[in-house]
Task: structure prediction
Amino acid sequence: MIEITLVLSAVVAVGIVGVMASLVTPHLMTELGLWTLLIGLVTGVPTGFWYHVVLYRVLARKMTVPARWWLAPVDLHRHLGSEEFARIRPWFALGGFGFVLSVAGGIAAMAGLLLGSGMR
Result:
């Protein structure tokens, strides 16, 4: 059942992208992409930084934090209790959301620029 849902979701997404491509001009796509990128950076960078600070503070009380821990901080979540994870979860989610917005906005802006320059 999950496979059918995924396939139908993909088909609907392709249809929506096709309709949007005919409605949105390259200039508008670039502008929306840049605004989305900016919102993602303004949201993701501070919250992602604070997530790392809070995670370090929680882990430092329990264990020696490994060198270069920030490269894969999710691997350290297993050392957290449920209350500790609840403390970092909002920052983790907001930082991830900001990252996704940044990537999506960057891709949309690049696509708008490419479409506007005549490359298809």
